[in-house]
Amino acid sequence: MSAEGAKGRQTDSNISLGFVLYQNDRFFRSKLYTRRRATIRVLSASVRGREPNVVPQHVEMIFRPRNISGTSLYDFSCVFWNYSQKDWSTSGCSKGNTSDGLMRCFCNHTTNFAALWSYRENYEYAEALGVISIVGLSLSILGLVVTIIYHIKENFFGKSHGQPSNLNSKLALLCIYLSLLAFIITFLSGVQNSSRQIDTEVQIHNRTNDILNSDERIEPDSGSCTAVAALLHFLLMATFMWNSVYSTQLVLLVRSMRRSLPTHWTPLSVTLGWGVPACFMVITLGVSYRVDNPLGYRQEEFCWLAALDKKQQFNFGKPMFWAFLLPIGLILIYNIVLLVLTSMATCKVDTRLTSNKKSSLRRRFLISLSLAVLLGLSWTLGYFVLLSSEKTHQIFSILFCICTTTQGLQIFILFTARRRAFRATISRSISSFNIPLNSTQYNLQRKWKNCNMNQSETYKDLSDIEVTTSKTL
């Protein structure tokens, strides 16, 4: 809109143009549009003349949105302030073409104009799993599968089946293996977010002029990534809870010199091992999850609990801290105390640990190492990763990745491969594996000038393999 255009329609008329630019929206408090990052400038325009037709019926405005670090423009709307509704309205305004970063708005009246922006985060979707993680987790899956099969065969269907000795401990071990295996499989197959925001098309070229509800664009939750995050949360919490249940049972058995615990320990163990993690998962979902804003519960890049704020700084109010790091930290401290008590009690009870100095140190080390691996004490390195500086951060990250991803393999080596019964079973399986060989007969003929001779030879091995060779000369 220009003064020259207005003068062209009315000759010898006094035309007054008035513009007021508001640097913020203090006088335009909206209930429909929530501003968190963007700044709103409001432009008020008025045109007056002697005759009514001097008032323009078509107003064109061009806006250049301000860039916000780490975001990109997703959509905008052309609005004016409706004093009767005391809020923004799109009546009489429309969106124009966008080019070169300029947004065009058209309105058929002159009031208080504004352009409402909607930005979305520019997420960096890095690969969630590196080579070390994939290899370590794959080996852990293989080791846990073999361990579970052998554990069920020996303790529930083998010679010890039906005996009440250590039934609670055997059940706790099986639940540890199962929950850890389920966590690893879910992590490998679903931690990468398949419904990424970056795959959705921006709406700045859309001519639909609707009032935006916020200056932050968050895609509605599709459900799959949130379900994976909740399942990972539950399975990992269950693994640590069963670790604590098993270590508690072990301390009670060693210190009381009993072969088994009372029968009421079985339902109590199941309630603690599976029920407490389920309660944590449900409470976390109920408190922090919203369908229209799933990022309050989970991350956008990966299907895991939310941890960082808008400035990419660790936020203690996010579920990652109070729903995972805090309870897991308490469980790890509890397990470390039980590990010390178990090691001390075992060394006092087991006379083999004091037979000679060298054997005693070796047995003590293996017992402590096995329990430390089973109780997941390698996860304490994750807290050092969070607290470390730039120089040591990479070192702790590599150690944490190697130790945690190969936990299933370590359990297989320390709790299954070291057992004589398992090695004997594997040895029998290999020795009983036969390769069938067929009897082969060869006929060789050769002509002599002066005579013909026939000769047959048969060779037999001492084993059941028979080879027959016939030659004719």
Automatic annotation (TrEMBL):
SMART domains hit by this protein: GPS (SM00303)
Recorded topology in the membrane: Multi-pass membrane protein
Classification via InterPro entries: ADGR_G7, GAIN_B, GAIN_dom_sf, GPCR_2-like_7TM, GPCR_2_secretin-like, GPR128_GAIN_subdom_B, GPS
GO cellular component: membrane
One Gene Ontology term of the molecular function aspect: G protein-coupled receptor activity
Domain GAIN-B: 1-123
G-protein coupled receptors family 2 profile domain span: 129-419
Segments traversing the membrane: 128-150, 171-191, 265-289, 320-344, 365-389, 395-417
Protein localization: Membrane
Record flagged with keyword Mitochondrion: no
Top-level division of the source organism's lineage: Eukaryota
Keyword match Transmembrane helix: yes
Keywords for the protein's UniProt record, in alphabetical order: Disulfide bond, Membrane, Transmembrane, Transmembrane helix
Example GO BP: cell surface receptor signaling pathway
Chief place of localization: membrane
PANTHER family for this protein: ADHESION G PROTEIN-COUPLED RECEPTOR G7
Name of protein: Adhesion G-protein coupled receptor G7
Species in which this protein is naturally found: Oreochromis niloticus (Nile tilapia)
